[in-house]
C-alpha cells in the first residue's frame, strides 16, 4: 500500500478526533491500537474516504480521498465493526454478488466470482443461508468475502474479532493472515497484531507510537496504566 497523510486533521464540531498528522504507510500488514475513543476508527475511515479530512489530504495509492472518492472506495475496502450492518441482501450468495451487479458485470462473471469468493473464505456451504441467521464468525467471513469480491487492493478491518469465541477468533485471524490484499487491522485484540510489520498507537487523537508491535504494545500498557 501507499498511503500518505499530509497535515491531516479531523474535527466533529468542537471535538478534535484527530490532531494534525503527517505520515506515510507502505507496509503490507499494519495494525492500529488505542483506548476507546482515541481516534483509531476516524483514522482508518480517512483511508477509504468515509471520513474526509477537516484539513489536509489523504492520498491512497495515488488517489485523493476527496477528489477521487469513488475510486478510493474501490481501492480500499472497509469491513465494519458490526459487519451484519453491511450485509445488504437477505441471502449470503446474493450479498456477495451485490457489489458486482452494481458494477454491471455480466451474469456469468458475477456467478464465477461469487463462487470463487465463497470458496476462498470457506463459506461455500453457507451460500443459500439467510445472512441474519449466521453466527458471528460466519458473518465476519461473509462480510470479508462481500468486500474482497470487488477487488480492493487494501482491506481495512475494524475490530474483526470483536465478540467472537475462541474458535471463531482463531478462524478469522488465520483468514486475515492469509489474505493477499494489504491489510490494516484496528483492534483491541493484541494477539491479532503482535506480528504485523508496523503497529500504530493512537491516544487522545494523536499518534503516540509507531513501530514494531512489541514496542508499541509496551507503550499502550503505559498509557492504559495496566
Ligand atoms: N461522527 C462523529 N461525530 C462526532 N464525534 C465523533 C464522530 N466519530 C467519532 N467521534 C468522536 O471522535 C473521537 C474518536 O472516535 P473514534 O471512533 O475514532 O475512536 P476509536 O479509537 O475508534 O474508539 P473505539 O475503540 O471505542 O471504537 C471520539 O471522541 C468520538 O466520540
From TrEMBL:
GO cellular component terms given for this protein:
ATP-binding cassette (ABC) transporter complex
Q: Which GO terms describe its molecular function?
A: ATP binding; ATP hydrolysis activity; ATPase-coupled transmembrane transporter activity
Give the matching Gene3D superfamilies. Answer: P-loop containing nucleotide triphosphate hydrolases (3.40.50.300)
Has the keyword ATP-binding been applied to this entry? yes
GTP-binding among keywords: no
Organism superkingdom:
Bacteria
Q: Which SUPFAM superfamilies match?
A: P-loop containing nucleoside triphosphate hydrolases (SSF52540)
Q: Which Pfam families has this protein been placed in?
A: ABC_tran
Recite the UniProt keywords alphabetically.
ATP-binding, Nucleotide-binding, Transport
Q: Which PANTHER family match?
A: ENERGY-COUPLING FACTOR TRANSPORTER ATP-BINDING PROTEIN ECFA1, HEAVY METAL TRANSPORTER
So what family is this one in?
Belongs to the ABC transporter superfamily.
Protein name, per record: Energy-coupling factor ABC transporter ATP-binding protein
Instruction: Supply the source organism for this entry.
Output: Sinorhizobium mexicanum
Amino acid at each position: 500500500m501507499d498511503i500518505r497523510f499530509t497535515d491531516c486533521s479531523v474535527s466533529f464540531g468542537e471535538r478534535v478526533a484527530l490532531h494534525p498528522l503527517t505520515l506515510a504507510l507502505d507496509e503490507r500488514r499494519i495494525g492500529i491500537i488505542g483506548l476507546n475513543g482515541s481516534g483509531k476508527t476516524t483514522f482508518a475511515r480517512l483511508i477509504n474516504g468515509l471520513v474526509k479530512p477537516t484539513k489536509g489530504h489523504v492520498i491512497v495509492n495515488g488517489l485523493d480521498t476527496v477528489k477521487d472518492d469513488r475510486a478510493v472506495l474501490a481501492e480500499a475496502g472497509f469491513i465494519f465493526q458490526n459487519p451484519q450492518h453491511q450485509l445488504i441482501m437477505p441471502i449470503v450468495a446474493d450479498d456477495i454478488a451485490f457489489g458486482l451487479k452494481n458494477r454491471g458485470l455480466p451474469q456469468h462473471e458475477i456467478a464465477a466470482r461469487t463462487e470463487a469468493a465463497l470458496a476462498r473464505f470457506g463459506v461455500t456451504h453457507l451460500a443459500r443461508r439467510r445472512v441474519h441467521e449466521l453466527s458471528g464468525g460466519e458473518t465476519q467471513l461473509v462480510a470479508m468475502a462481500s468486500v474482497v469480491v470487488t477487488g480492493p487492493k487494501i482491506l481495512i478491518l475494524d475490530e474483526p474479532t470483536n465478540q467472537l469465541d475462541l474458535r471463531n477468533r482463531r478462524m478469522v485471524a488465520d483468514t486475515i493472515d492469509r489474505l493477499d490484499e494489504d491489510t490494516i487491522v484496528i483492534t483491541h485484540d493484541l494477539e491479532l497484531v503482535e506480528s504485523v510489520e508496523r503497529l500504530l498507537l493512537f491516544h487522545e487523537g494523536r499518534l503516540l507510537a509507531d513501530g514494531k508491535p512489541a514496542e508499541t504494545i509496551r507503550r499502550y500498557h503505559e498509557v492504559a496504566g495496566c
